[in-house]
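pinning this so it doesn't scroll away 📌
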Amino acid sequence: MEVAANCSLRVKRPLLDPRFEGYKLSLEPLPCYQLELDAAVAEVKLRDDQYTLEHMHAFGMYNYLHCDSWYQDSVYYVDNLGRIMNLTVMLDTALGKPREVFRLPTDLIAYDNRLCASMHFTSSTWVTLSDGTGRLYLIGTGERGNSASEKWEIMFNEELGNPFIIIHSISLLKAEEHSIATLLLRIEKEELDMKGSGFYVSLEWVTINKKSKDKKKYEITKRNILRGKSVPHYAAIEPNGNGLMIVSYKSFTFVQVGQNLEESKDEDMSEKIKEPLYYWQQTEDDLTVTISLPEDCTKEDIQIQFLPDHVNVVLKGHRFLEGNLYSSIDHESSTWIIKENNSLEISLIKKNEGLIWPELVVGDKQGEFIRDSAQCAAIAERLMHLTSDELNPNPDKGKPPCNAQELEECDIFFEESSSLCRFDGSTLKTTHVVNLGSNQYLFSVIVDPKEMPCFCLRHDVDALLWQPHSGNQDDMWEHIATFNALGYVQASKRDKKFFACAPNYSYAALCECLRRVFIYRQPTPMSTVLYNRKEGRQVGQVAKQQVASLETSDPILGFQATNERLFVLTTKNLFLIKVNTEN
C-alpha cells in the first residue's frame, strides 16, 4: 500500500520583509462608479433545513459576481430573470449597461429546492454553468473578447441529481479529443449520522468529452465522488486533468459511484466490532496472554514454542500467533495451561525486569492490552506532582497562567488544523499531504488562467500567496508573493465577507457585509523624505491602506479584484472602484 508523501510549504525568504512597519491610512479619494441593474441579482437565501455552518460557508457566503480571468476587467452575474449579464470595462468614464449574453432555459422561480446559479470560465471559449436545480450546462461561447465571434450556445446539458454549485473546471484537448472536467459541490443529508450535523459534503468530479470531430455530441465518460465533513476552502483540478488539490479542515476520500454507503458503513462497523484474537497483561516481572480456545480443542491440539525473542502458537494445525517479541524472555521458565473457562493462558517471564512493553509481538495489532488497575494507580501517583486542583497553586513560584481573555482574535488557533491534499486522478488515492497547522486559509485568486488558482495562507502575521505546479513533484507549491502583516490585519475585521487580491499582487482587498471596502497596497517608494524617529533612519517606502464606503444600504453579494479595479455587487447595483491607473 502506497503512503501519501508528507510535504511542507517552502517559504522564499527574499519575499519576506522583516522591517515592515505597517500600513499608513491614506485619505486620497478613490474614483467610484455606480451602475444600476435592470433586474435584481438572483440571490437564493438559505432555507430552514439549511441550518449548518457548512451550508453557510458554501451557499450563504456565495460570491454572486464572477470574474472572467481570460479577459481583463470582465465580470458576470445572474439576475432573477434567469439572464447571464456581463460588464466589460474599457474606459471608466464611458461605462455601458450590463448586457445579456445568455438566458437560462429553466424557469428558476418554479423550483423551491434550488441553489444559487453558478458558473466557471473553463477556457477562453468555454463556460460551465449550473442553474442551481441540478442541471449542468456546457456552453461554447466563441472568443468572448470579440463581439463579432462571441455567441453562447449550449453544447451539453444533463440532469445530474441533487442541486449543486460549480467549484472549478478545466478544458483538455488531446489528439483531437476534447474533454471538460468539472468539480461540483453538494451538501447531502446523512440519515445515519446521529452525533454530527446530519449532513456530509460531496465533491463530484465529472468528465465530459467528445471523441472526434465527426461526433458532435458531448457525453459524460467519468463520474467520481469525494466525500468529507467540511466544505473545502479550495478545490481545483490540475491543468492536465491528472489530479486535484483540496484545502479543507476535514479530510476527503473517494467513494465508488453506485456504492451503497450504508453497506460500506456496516462493513467498517463490523471491522471495528471484531473481537481481538487475544488479550494480554503485564507486571514488572512477567506477561500473561489469554486466548479463547475453539470448541473441542484439547491439549494435543495445542503446540507452543518459546524462544528467547520469539513465540509461536499453533491451534489445531493452524498458526495462531507467531512473531518476534518486543523484548527477550526466559524461554525455559515460560509456561502455558488450559483454564476451566476453555481459555489458554500463557505466562512469559521477562528477561529485563521492570521494562514496560508497549506491544507483545512486534507489529501485531490483533491483540488487546488490558491495563491492571493497580498499575494505573501507580502511574497516576508518579505524575501527581505535575497536576493540581487549583488554577495557579503557587503564583510566586513562576509566571501566572495564560488568560485566554487577553488573547486577540488573530492569536486564537482553530481546534482542527487544515490540510492540503493532492489526489491522483487514476488511482483516486492521496499522493501528497501538507498539514497547514495554524496557517489559516484566507482566499484564492487566479493569477494565470492556464494554471491552477493560487491560494493565500496566513504565515505568522503575513499573508503568503502560493501557486500550485502539478508537474513539479519535488516543489509542487511555489511561494510567489507576500502581503506584509495582512494576516494580522484581516483578523481584526470581524464583519469581513469577501477577500481578494489583484492578479499582479499590487494590492489586496476585503469587504464587509455592508458598505465598506478596505484596500491594502504593496509598499511603494516615497516621493518625499520620511524618517523613523525611534530608529533614526530614513524610510524608503510606505504601504498605504485606503477605505471606500459605498453609497448603498443593500448587502454586498459579490466581490472581484482585477489589476486596475475592484467590482462590488449588491442586490440592485454594481460598483466599480478604480484602484490602480493603467501602466
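📌 and the second one:
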Amino acid sequence: MARVLASKMGFTSLRRTQARTFRVRIVTADADLEFGCEVKCKGRDLFDLVCRTLGLRETWFFGLQYTIKDTMAWLKMDKRVLDQDVPKEEPLVLNFLAKFYPENAEEELVQDITQHLFFLQVKKKILEEEVYCPPEASVLLASYAVQAKYGDYHPNVHKPGFLAQEELLPKRVINLYQMTAEMWEERITVCYAEHRGRTRDEAEIEYLKIAQDLEMYGVNYFFIRNKKGTDLLLGVDALGLHIYDPDNKLTPKISFPWNEIRNISYSDREFAIKPLDKKADVFKFNSSKLRVNKLILQLCIGNHDLFMRRRKVDSLEVQQMKAQAREEKARKQMERQRLDREKRLREEAERARDELERRLIQLQDEALMANEALLRSEETADLLAEKAQIAEEEAKLLAQKAAEAEQEIQRIKVTAIRSEEEKRLIEQKKLEAEMLALKMAEESERRAKEAEQLKQDLQEARESERRAKHKLLEITSKSHTLPPGAGGCHSECLSFDFKDTDMKRLSMEIEKEKVEYMEKSKHLQEQLNELKTEIESLKLKERETHLDILHNENTERGTSKQSNFKKVRYVCVL
C-alpha cells in the first residue's frame, strides 16, 4: 500500500493538531494513498493532489467516489470535502475510479497510467460480473491479462499450474462448463502463447479494445419509472441514453444517442428527454431517490460534454499530451528495438558460447578417445611383438615338424612300396584262398555225394543185416547155434526253418499357420468462435444465467452493441 503525505495546495502534515486536519485514504485500482488534509480543503484540491501523485493528466475521465445510504455518489469539486454528505469517519475512505468511459480506448486514452487504471477497473468489473462477458471472450481477455502480467510465454518458465492462484475468469463462466482448472488454464495458455512480443501497455489496450464491445461496458444503470408508472432501467454511457427492461441489461428497448437529443430537462424529480425531431414524443421518467436523480444529471452532463469534445479539435493540452505520448511511444519503440537487438546479440553470443563449449567438450572427448586409442595401440604393439616372437618360435617348430613330416613322408613312401608288395601277396593269397575255397566246395560236394552214397550203402547194409538176423533166427531156431552178433549204427537229421519279416516305417506331417496383423486464427471473431466451439460441448445448459440466454439470442439474431442505435435516429445538441 502506498501512503503519501501532502504538505501543499491546502493540505498540511498529519503532525498538525487534529482539530485543523483530517485523514483521507484514497483507494485506487492498484494502490492505496493516504493524505492529511486541512478542514477547509475542497474536493478539487484533493482530486488534483491524487492526480499529481499518480502522474495522471487525463483527469476528465476520473472522480472520487463514496457510498452513502447504499447509494453511489461522487465528490463535488467546488465544495469543501467535509461540507458534503461523505461518511463521518476517519480516515475518510474515497475510491479513485473512472467516472466516464471513452468511446474508443485505443484512440482516446493517451497516457499509459490512464490505460492501466482503466484496464484494472474493467477487469475487476468483469470478474465480479458487474459487466456480462461471454465465455469465449472471457478466455481471450484472460490471456491478455496474463500477457500484461507475465510478459512473453516461455514453456520452461510458465509450466502447468503457474495460473493456479490467479483469478482470471468469472465464476459464472467456470460453473457453466464441465471443465477442470487445468483445462481452463490450458485454453488460456494456448491464447497467451500467441501474444508473444506484446508489451504490458499493448496487452492492456488489446484487453480494453475487446471489452469495450461488451453490451454492459461503461454503462451506469438506474431503476426508473416512466409516466405510466412502468418499472424500467436507464443506462447512461459515452454513446447516449438507453432504456431497458429490468430483467434485460443487454438489449435496450430504445436508445437516444447524444447527437440526437435536443434537450434533457430536470424539474420536480422528473426527467424529460426531448429528441431533435420535434415530431417525436418526449420521454419522461423519474427516480424515487433525490441523490439518484442528481447522479443521473451529473453523468448525463459529463458524458454529453465528452461526446461533443471528441468531435472537436483537441485542446492544446491534449495535443501536447498526444505529442508527448507519440514521442514516448517512439522512444519506447526504439528502446524496445535496442533491447531486442541486444537480446538477439546476447542470444547469438550465448549460442556461439554454447557452440564453443560444445566444440570444446567434443575436442576433449576426441582427445580422450585419441589418448585411449594411443594406449590401446601401445598395448597392441606390445601384444603384436609378443605374438611375433611366439610366431617365430612356432615357425621354427613348424620347420622342425616339416622336416619330421618330410622324413615321415619318405618312410610312408617306403612303407607304401612295401605295402604294394604285400598287397600283391595278399591278392595272390586271396586268389589262392578262392581257389582253395572252390576246391573245398567241390570237395564238400563230392563228400556230400559220398555221404549220400554211404547212406544208401548203410541202408543196404542194414537191410542185409535185417535179413541176416532173420535168417540167423531161422537157423537158430533150427540148430540152436548163435552166430557172432554184428553192431549197428543210426544217424539223426535236424533241420531249422527261418522266416524273414519285413519292417514297415510310419511318418507324420505337421502343418503350421501364420496370422498377419496389419493429421490455427485470421480475425478476433474467428478466434472467439474457435474458443466457443472448443468449450461448447462441455457447457451445462441447466446452469446458464438469464444474461447467458439473452447473449445467445442476440448472437443468433446478429445483434451487436452498435446496432442498437439504429432504432431511433435524431440530430442535434443538448
